[in-house]
Write the structure tokens for this entry.
Amino acid sequence: MDRYAVFGHPVRHSKSPRIHAAFAEQTGQALTYEAIEAPLDGFEATLRAFIAAGGRGGNVTVPFKEQAFALADSCDALAAQAQAVNTLRVEPDGHLAGFNTDGIGLLRDLAQNLHVELRGRRVLLIGAGGAAAGVIGPLLGAGVAELVIANRTAPRAQALATRFAGHGPIHAAALNAPGEGFDVVLNATAAGLTGQAPAVPVSVFGPRAVACDLVYGPAAAPFLALARQAGVTTCHDGLGMLVEQAAEAFWLWRGIRPATAPVIAALRGG
Ligand code: NAP
């Protein structure tokens, strides 16, 4: 059996083992996928031990995506842009290839599952951590009219806007005044994990806005409640994105694309 794993800290809550088990069963692939909690100061040692024991690849989550980028022997264009890796593949010669499938996952969820049009739309992206960095390139590639990035720690948003300036119409703005009436508002902060919504004014939501939190489950509730308070009726959490980014990783490892809809439905069912 080929071994895969998700590395994070904490990682016990991760739905990735369930998602990849469902993909493997659906596609008849013989593999195992486990959750491995690496010590905060021990990601590299944990990863190397996994590879030495035959590990073929892995996903990387908070807080190790930047370290994974630094450890990878090569990276695809999206990981290089984001300077963050969420998927690693061990090549037959031991070469460690890094990828970032977060942006692809978000775009597939928005386009294919939620039927949200991005081309020509004004988009507000809240947050400037690894998740935000991973989705900016694909959002700009989708032809948005404007991408505004706002973050609690403003210089981080400015730094990302500067890094991606050559890739499309992106600029940074203050979290408490990022502009008004956006068509799509994406929450890429971890605020929901502590029961909070990012401190944006409700005027950020346009009349027919789509609100999407990258976190899923109860952690998405504070931001989506803020959106509903502003009259937004189209609200989504990040579960679809999670399954879509996992499907892209599965394809990178196994060369086969699993169907995502039944897995999303099963996870929503409990
Ligand atoms: P990260 O690198 O630690 O960044 C956290 C971000 O959240 C920073 O921008 C931080 O702002 C902001 N933040 C934290 N608490 C806040 C608060 N109370 N108010 C306003 N902003 C706050 O984490 P990440 O990797 O970007 O991940 C962010 C979230 O996205 C995580 O919860 C993760 O689970 C989720 N995610 C989901 C998927 C998916 O597939 N659905 C994929 C990737 C990530 P400062 O810069 O000011 O600290």
